[in-house]
From TrEMBL:
It comes from Methylobacterium gossipiicola. This is UDP-glucose 6-dehydrogenase. The keyword Translocase does not apply. Substrate binds at residues 152-155, 207, 252-256, 260, 324. The active site is at residue 263. Residues 317-418 form the UDP-glucose/GDP-mannose dehydrogenase C-terminal domain. Belongs to the UDP-glucose/GDP-mannose dehydrogenase family. Gene3D superfamilies: Cytochrome c1, transmembrane anchor, C-terminal, NAD(P)-binding Rossmann-like Domain. GO terms for biological process: polysaccharide biosynthetic process; UDP-glucuronate biosynthetic process. It catalyses: UDP-alpha-D-glucose + 2 NAD(+) + H2O = UDP-alpha-D-glucuronate + 2 NADH + 3 H(+). It is an enzyme of class 1 (oxidoreductase). One of its GO terms (molecular function) is UDP-glucose 6-dehydrogenase activity. Pathway: Nucleotide-sugar biosynthesis; UDP-alpha-D-glucuronate biosynthesis; UDP-alpha-D-glucuronate from UDP-alpha-D-glucose: step 1/1. SMART domains: UDPG_MGDP_dh_C (SM00984).
């Protein structure tokens, strides 16, 4: 099949490269000329493990191309995916759909022959109806269907999530469009990924419900962690104790500094807004949003408490800046709130992240960036692990002790066992 992927970001580029790898012919289109120039030059604009070789292989076999022009790609395509951003709208937290609607207008102008237009972006209920209206208004003559096909991949594991999904959700209003979508995903039958065909609105809401549920699970265990700290219990053992119950499940029960990233924060907010507008407030999700916001700031207070109640004039080494490991994505990373809180308290910040430094520099220009964990710890009063990169899992604590005048370690991801750190003379504070 011929596929046009509008938007070549974390989702569009991964999905486009994976569809090409399945044997489809894919053109990834982006309005950012620097992004397309980099891709045409063989450079990958984001860090996602395995994406460089996947893109290179498929470019070499002429299955994957790039363009800044929507028209050519759409005119030839059987299926056009919209994978542009849907960030929070300033003011009310609802999804900003301006990129989606702009893409819909561009697509409308170039449709040629029956085409399935698919929203892969995470979009509020009813967006598919509006995309259909925009295209129909611009092109009353065109033969097309609008389908919702939300994406469930995680950054850092995006390729395997895309190629081996737990399920594929297709929200289609007619059988022809649904059968085209089955053909697009036909290579995944080998993996026996269930395909759920639903109405369009149901598919749109399923995506938000999934993200809100996962965010709720994380927030639940984070609050249980706070209680554990007060009553002398171990949250990791509680998580294991409940997670072994299949009805609960072990995943997404790692307590930490609060969820971040480009999706959970904005999607929970947008869902809350949709629910309020519909007169059916989701009070549980509202609480999750509030608790998670407070938690990120509370982590700065936790570090401050570990430093004896004040960080004024102290040097704090931060290991890990991205919202999770194996990505360079800094959007809504907990590190941003934690660093700001510590700076407000008068701390000097040194930081290191394996892939997030370029993004972090743009957002936090006033901290000292270092080349590795050991340089980061040099001269520090306390070391804080914010993101659990593998590179931080086997640190040389003898070397760190030699470089740090202070002896405090705050491990916000519970990477280490307290005793292992304590034996090097450090005071260890986990979650
Ligand atoms: P992104 O910001 O990385 O990429 C979006 C891209 O779209 C950018 O490169 C931008 O230049 C381009 N763009 C914007 N308007 C355009 C237009 N009119 N024509 C062509 N290109 C245009 O965003 P992302 O993280 O890939 O997310 C995209 C969507 O997928 C969002 O709705 C998000 O919620 C959803 N999603 C993201 C993830 C994830 O892990 N990042 C996972 C599942 C779903
Ligand atoms: C998340 C979902 O997992 C994907 O299914 C979804 O497609 C995506 O959002 C999206 O809609 O964009 P992602 O944000 O890439 O994926 O990463 P996650 O692994 O879900 O982590 C999100 C945040 O939760 C991170 O800050 C992470 O550290 C935190 N987290 C996750 C925890 O604190 N504890 C956990 O047990 C799991």
């Amino acid at each position: 099949m011929k596929i046009a992927m509008i938007g070549a970001g974390y989702v569009g580029l991964v999905s486009g490269a994976c569809f090409a790898d399945f044997g489809h012919t894919v053109c990834c289109v982006d309005t950012d000329p620097a992004k397309i120039a980099a891709l045409e030059d063989g450079r990958i604009p984001i860090f996602e493990p395995g994406l460089d070789t996947l893109v290179a292989d498929n470019v070499r076999h002429s299955r994957l191309t790039f363009s800044t022009e929507v028209s050519g790609a759409v005119a030839q395509a059987d299926v056009v995916f919209i994978a542009v951003g849907t960030p929070s709208r300033r003011g009310d937290g609802f999804a900003d759909l301006s990129y989606v609607y702009a893409a819909a207008r561009d697509i409308a102008a170039s449709l040629d022959g029956y085409t399935v237009v698919v929203t892969k972006s995470t979009v509020p209920v009813g967006t598919g109806d509006e995309v259909e209206r925009i295209i129909r208004e611009a092109r009353p003559d065109a033969a097309f269907a609008v389908v919702s096909n939300p994406e469930f991949l995680r950054e850092g594991a995006a390729i395997s999530d895309f190629k081996r999904p737990d399920r594929i959700v297709i929200g289609a209003e007619d059988d022809r469009a649904a059968s085209v979508m089955r053909e697009v995903y036909q290579p995944l039958y080998l993996n026996q990924a269930p395909i759920l065909v639903t109405g369009r609105r149901t598919a749109e809401l399923t995506k938000y419900a999934a993200n809100a549920f996962l965010a709720t699970k994380i927030t639940f265990i984070n609050e249980i962690a706070d209680l554990c700290e007060q009553v002398g219990a171990n949250v990791q053992e509680v998580a294991r104790g409940i997670g072994l119950d299949n009805r609960i499940g072990a995943k997404f029960l790692h307590a930490g500094p609060g969820y971040g990233g480009s999706c959970f924060p904005k999607d929970t907010l947008a869902l809350v807004k949709t629910a309020q507008d519909s007169g059916t407030p989701l009070r549980l999700v509202e609480a999750v949003v509030a608790v998670n916001d407070q938690r990120k700031r509370a982590m700065a207070r936790k570090v401050t408490a570990a430093c004896g109640g004040s960080v004024r004039g102290k040097t704090i080494a931060i290991l890990g800046l991205t919202f999770k490991p194996n990505t360079d994505d800094m959007r809504d990373a907990p590190s941003l709130a934690i660093v700001a809180g510590l700076q407000d308290g008068g701390a000097r910040i040194r930081a290191y992240d394996p892939e997030g430094m370029a993004g972090a520099r743009a957002l936090m220009p006033d901290i000292t960036y270092t080349d590795d964990p050991y340089e980061c710890a040099t001269g520090a009063d306390a070391l804080v692990i914010v993101t659990e990169w593998n590179a931080f899992r086997a640190l040389d604590w003898t070397e760190l002790a030699a470089r740090m005048p202070g002896r405090t370690v705050v491990d916000l991801r519970n990477v280490y066992r307290p005793d292992d750190i304590a034996r090097h003379g450090f005071r260890y504070v986990g979650v």
